[in-house]
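Quick illustration, no need to memorize.
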Amino acid sequence: MDWLDEKLDKLLNGIKNLSFRQAMLAYVLILAVITAVLTYVTQAFCRYQKILFAGEWCGYAYAFAGIILTIFIFYRKRLKRPLSLLNESVNNIRRNNLDFHISYDSRDEFGELCDSVEAMRLELEKNKEELWRLIERQKELNAAFAHDLRTPLTVLKGYTDFLARYITEGKLSEDKLQEILKLMAEHLKRLEDYSYTMKGIRSIEEVPLSLRETTLAGLENRIKEVVFALNQTGGIRITYGGFDIKYTGFIEADDSIIMEVLENILSNDIRYARSSIEIYMDYDSSEKEIVAMVRDDGPGFSQEQLTQATKPYHKEYSADAEEEHFGIGLHICQELCLKHGGTLSVANSILGGAVVTASFRCR
């Protein structure tokens, strides 16, 4: 009996994997055999019972009933399930639901069609995920662009306030006025270059790294200019003591990225500091690494912020801050530090307030 069941299962599976043409032919042949056997048995029985009329017409009756039954069985065995699977898949795709899987265990035309639909689903799912990533990157880039404009604009405002205060009082020499105007022109040029750069990239990771020869003294002058301008806006006092080590040689670094990171950190600290911000800079000549540490006297990082602050769009409103921010500043800093071969870390100072440390690997 087991042998017979095994042979029957093998025969049914063989028929199941036949093409439609071959399967229909197999069903018709099986129908013909069954009809012939039934007709022969019925006619023999009718002859034995001498029922001649029934025996003449039984073959037609069996053939008609067999055709109806074959169509029903063929539809149920070969068409119903794959048609249902395909219809359900098309409806899911129409509803933009790609969280499904289509599988039909047959090697016939419907099996191939279901495999093609599954391949299409996987491709659509991949494209949808890629589109979502592009949208998220664009969203992040737009937020980064808006965030990064704040500090340069604040610097320009600081210079403007300085000019407005001292020009009217007649306390500004011609040389100092020319110096301030030159600095403002440089910051405007930087904003123009930044806008051009952001226009041509699709994510923060694509921000170009342009290493060029510079000196710690040159970098220090740029930091002092920013600190000077930010201090003109009032409210928060920013102090900068210069590099701990006086290295006079040339280094290869992207000072634009270093300044962008520093300005982003200052932009965040200004929101949360109560009255003061301190900037410390150091250069490790053996490792060729610039380290910037910024400390404020604000409430510091919460436990959640210590682990989440560098993630994009992490926001935690503080009563000490004037408004809720983008939640992307430190994430931008982290990405730029990584691009420059460095790191970014956040902590709380034992003296109180938050401490953000950024490093940049130079050449």
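Residues 2-107 form one domain.
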